[in-house]
Amino acid sequence: MRLLLSLALAGFVLSASSCGGGTEYVIQGNAQLVLLTNLRVDARGNATSLQAWRGTGVLPICTPVTITLVRDREIRFQVTGTNRTNRYVLHRSTALPIEDHVNRYFGGACANVASMSPADQSGIQQGRPMPGMTREGVILAVGYPPEHRTPSLDAPVWTYWGDGGEVQVQFDGNVVVNVAVPMPGQRRTVWPGVVVR
Questions:
Q1: CA–CA separation, 70 vs 89, rounded Å?
Q2: Which H/E stretch holds residue 101?
Q3: Which of 4, 17, 74, 154 lies 20 to 30 Å from 98 when distance is taken between CA atoms?
């Protein structure tokens, strides 16, 4: 049985076949895409839908990539010009289907970061949320917050997992007003230059 999914990204289409153990996707057309956000990967090239930061580096937004495999809970891709396979894996807490994750992180064209505010540009370049950023800027900088802790993107607080534990990005409307992160030996503190409100 084959289903054509509504994923048409720059000529890239996934078709799915369901056979016994789950859905396997067949990549049809041009799979040359770009990252739509910064994506945190560990030393093995693995990223997760939790967007955990500990022990990770940042693959920058707009990095050209080729998707090589899509399964129910995994996307494999290569940065153009390399032979290294990277994996984006859905954590068990993730309820969104894999096709939503493909659409969130891979596309035909990336955002025009140069047209964004200086706070958004700085946060995206550094790969971290900062006061003054917009919700869109935070997503481009660190990806979407895990939906089991932040079920709505309209919520006044988004929760991520940083190097030292839980990171809470607090908004006033559409603008970040505080980024609270734990530091060793303290219950909760903030990144330098961040004012607690």
A1: 10
A2: helix 98-105
A3: 154
The answer for 165, left when phi > 0, alpha when psi is -120 to 50, beta otherwise, is left
Separation between Cα atoms, residue 79 and residue 120, nearest integer Å:
24
Tokens of 15: 């078709």
Q: What is the arithmetic mean of pLDDT over 13-17? A: 52
Phi/psi of residue 142, nearest 5 degrees: -130, 5
CB atoms within 10 A of CB 86: 20
Measured between alpha carbons, how far is 119 from 141 in angstroms, rounded to an integer?
11
What 3-state DSSP class applies to 11? Answer: coil
Which residue carries 């190097």 as its tokens?
Answer: 163
Amino acid at 20: G
The domain spans of the chain are: 2-107, 113-190
Number of separate helices (H) and strands (E) present in the chain: 3, 15
Report how far residue 100's alpha carbon sits from residue 14's, in angstroms, rounded to the nearest whole number: 12
Question: How many Å is the Cα radius of gyration of the chain?
Answer: 17
In terms of pTM, does the model score above 0.90? Answer: no
| Residue 67 CB coordination number (10 Å) | 20
Report residue 25's pLDDT band, with 50, 70 and 90 as the boundaries.
low
Q: Cα(56)–Cα(70) distance, rounded to whole angstroms?
A: 22
